[in-house]
Amino acid sequence: PENVGILAMDVYFPKTCVDQAELEKHDGASTGKYTIGLGQTKMAFVDDREDIHSICLTVVSSLMEKYGVSYSDIGRMEVGTETIVDKSKSVKTVLMQLFAESGNYEVEGIDTTNACYGGTNALFNAINWVESSSWDGRLALVVAGDLAIYSSGSARPTGGAGVAALLVGPNAPIVIEVGARGTHMEHLYDFYKPDLSSEFPVVDGQLSVASYLKSFDMCYQRYMAKLERKLGLARGDASLIDYFVCHSPFTKQVQKAMAHISMYDFKRNPEDQRYASVQQYLDTPIEQSYTDKVMERAFIGVSKDELYKNKAEVAQYAAKNLGNLYCGSVYGGLASLISQVPSAELAGKRITLFSYGSGSAATMFSLIVRGDTDAIAKHVNIVERLAARTEVAPVDYEKVMELREKTHQLRSYTPVGPTDNFFPGTYYLVHVDDMYRRQYARS
Ligand code: ACO
């Protein structure tokens, strides 16, 4: 098969959100800490009516209906998530109930679990399947997303909720670029979920921020070396890349990632005029910037227009307005880009994605736009859909967080959240019976 890539996509996010400026006030944080310091506008959250099963049921059924795809056309489905309600029964098997009516039970693939990176592994599996000898000619579905919820404290404003679904197959308008990929994986305790009775992660915030940037540096170097080889260039730099779509715990982190691109490109081309203001860092190792805020700020300054504003910011729309989607973050970013930039402008462009998961697992890889993306833009419609949400006061948001904490993993439980404030077509939890079996309805 040729031109294997993304044929269609959709993103689901809950209807409720909290305003970050309001949350700053409510939390007694200094004005601007969440909005400027973290670069966030709104944060999506769910009450006890939604869980990882329901949000995945919603996004898959939405994609299939919007694009008119038949469930019998799917030969593989992979879910990437770190939100676990069951240690044994995969989310994928729950999603199989959507296939019942079509009679198609022959669907390969299962869940991938890792902080923020499961979706990327799921996508690679789907692409590999289509390109392999096991391919049966049908399409693959990739589902990537999470409910990102932190205990109260400094990490809480970096939560979020949402899930992306991607339809993968040959002759796609958005094609995976062969031979351009850089990966970095290592053993780290920066963010993990050892307490299986809680939704909250254990987080070493500063380590996770530094580890993201170190992984970004390693991936960019490896990715660029491969791109140079592929294109037959002696020296490549960010000018080869039209758009960056980065995993976004909060958008300030992506501004820092762009600063790291300019650190690396500067080292390889120090005479360039655009680096006049940072000449003093020529012999300073890039790693110093993990702790040296003055150095980091200098390169944020160098990269803010040419890299962040021109190439990366458009893909940060969902992240800014939803928060961290963990496994879905980078794909919410791709949806933001496709949804806002017209197809004619995207034609032939290289989109470079950076996926980072704590622990840690990271890959930089690219997509090339080869066909019309207008249908995806129309169906994702990110700006209008995000504007149609309901804002909840921080005090009520906190009550919902307490409710989730108290009722997490209960059996014989009927959720108390309202059932009249969903987007149409949203699946929600109706009851958990005495054997923990979950029953859902659709709005
Ligand atoms: N106005 C403007 N900026 C402000 C203000 C203000 N009033 N107050 C603080 N800031 C800035 C700070 O200078 C800092 O920016 P900088 O990093 O560019 O210097 C930023 O806001 C954050 O402030 P900190 O004091 O560093 O925040 P804190 O330590 O309280 O928490 C953290 C930040 C560590 C990111 C925390 O939210 C966290 O642990 N989040 C979860 C982990 C995470 O998201 N990690 C990212 C990668 S891993 C993953 O995706 C899960």
UniProtKB/TrEMBL annotation:
The keyword Lipid biosynthesis does not apply. It comes from Thamnocephalis sphaerospora. Gene3D superfamilies: 3.40.47.10. Residues 174-442 form the Hydroxymethylglutaryl-coenzyme A synthase C-terminal domain. InterPro entries: HMG_CoA_synt_C_dom, HMG_CoA_synth_N, HMG_CoA_synthase_euk, Thiolase-like. Its EC number is 2.3.3.10. This is Hydroxymethylglutaryl-CoA synthase. The active site is at 82 (proton donor/acceptor), 116 (acyl-thioester intermediate), 247 (proton donor/acceptor). It comes from the Eukaryota. Residues 1-173 form the Hydroxymethylglutaryl-coenzyme A synthase N-terminal domain. Catalyzes the condensation of acetyl-CoA with acetoacetyl-CoA to form HMG-CoA. Pfam families: HMG_CoA_synt_C, HMG_CoA_synt_N. GO terms for molecular function: hydroxymethylglutaryl-CoA synthase activity. The keyword Transferase applies. Belongs to the thiolase-like superfamily. HMG-CoA synthase family. Keywords: Transferase. It is an enzyme of class 2 (transferase). It catalyses: acetoacetyl-CoA + acetyl-CoA + H2O = (3S)-3-hydroxy-3-methylglutaryl-CoA + CoA + H(+). CoA binds at residues 208, 252, 256. One of its GO terms (biological process) is farnesyl diphosphate biosynthetic process, mevalonate pathway.
